[in-house]
């Protein structure tokens, strides 16, 4: 080789190694976690996010905040993925998972500075996570998960979130009713519950619709505004004069030829109207256009038609009503029809909505959310969506644990107890995991204006004495008590997922000691 240097990377590449790489990645992860920490709990603060176009989002939902932020650092992106995973799997606990991951990284950083190898930290964290899952199992409430507990789960999820003029307790009733409606022998059909938002009234007007709501208006003003016991056809058919795919011009040499062309068009349109009317359909939803003459003829027949539906709306209508989408009028048969007890249209300001209720449509329910401003309905939609997810999770698993930081206190206590029997430096990592878990009750305390250290000491003492202790917030009063007695409960799966996803992200980041970036 003659002593000549060998270049295996581009000259534009940047490489960070060893402690510098670990420090950079850990710092990025901690920064992301810190950005959402103050939103945790019933007294959590909101964040205002403004994008480059000037659009504003005001929320304290961890997943929303992290996804709205313009995060480029790859290690920081892993914390966002923790939040996304939590949201996808159980629907709530996103802030807890992100904050826990960030503090696991902070503890790992301290251990690395003490010359504890990253592999030892990873092994210790995984062992501690296993102990944490055992602690969660020990905290599961032995009582059956009934409607009252489900209401507590929903209320706990929404407390502290923007719910407009509604209380979390009143919304919880609606959430539980919605989930109970889609509870089947095969499990909870969570996808059969949708949330539809509409600006223009107080949030107190929020209600549960036994069916679906579609943002559509009738194709003709003369059509009925309501149809009872409706037979529904869902079409992918254009009820207009057919045009060729190729641009063409036709020469007409006489009035007779013009009249013949007009008659042909009229006949084609009349044929569409007659076919639909004679099929027995009371209501038609189509993804294509409907000619004015066809709409007028169907209006005279008392048929309600909605045109230009998006593909997702057409799928939703078909799924909810039991209809089969048809791509050719000649193929329309009785077996293709869906059904609903009632379809009616309502006008809200400049918006027209179609309500498909009862009958086959009642297998799907819609939480119809009202609010005075776009920010209110958006935050209500996020809060209700999370509550629906956690209630579905609790109902399916049948397991709930105390909230208000009580489960985290129990986890940390058990890990420290088990750590005494672990030899070598791995014990330091296991104990560090417990310290990281303490961030949840510490943050809850800080967000209520209490001293985190004093509260943590009191919580540990109460836990040792009673076996269960959380930070209970009731109005302006903050006390330490049994969360189960105060109705502050969370699905056990939310806690499990937070431990597992945070541990996975923290250990992955801690093991990185070489970052190669191409420019």
From TrEMBL:
This is Chaperonin Cpn60/TCP-1. Residues 1-25 are annotated as: Disordered. InterPro entries: Chaperone_TCP-1, Chaperonin_TCP-1_CS, Cpn60/GroEL/TCP-1, GroEL-like_apical_dom_sf, GROEL-like_equatorial_sf, TCP-1-like_intermed_sf, TCP-1_chaperonin, thermosome_alpha. It comes from Natrinema gari JCM 14663. Belongs to the TCP-1 chaperonin family. It comes from the Archaea. Keywords: ATP-binding, Chaperone, Nucleotide-binding. The keyword ATP-binding applies. One of its GO terms (molecular function) is ATP hydrolysis activity. Transmembrane segments: none annotated.
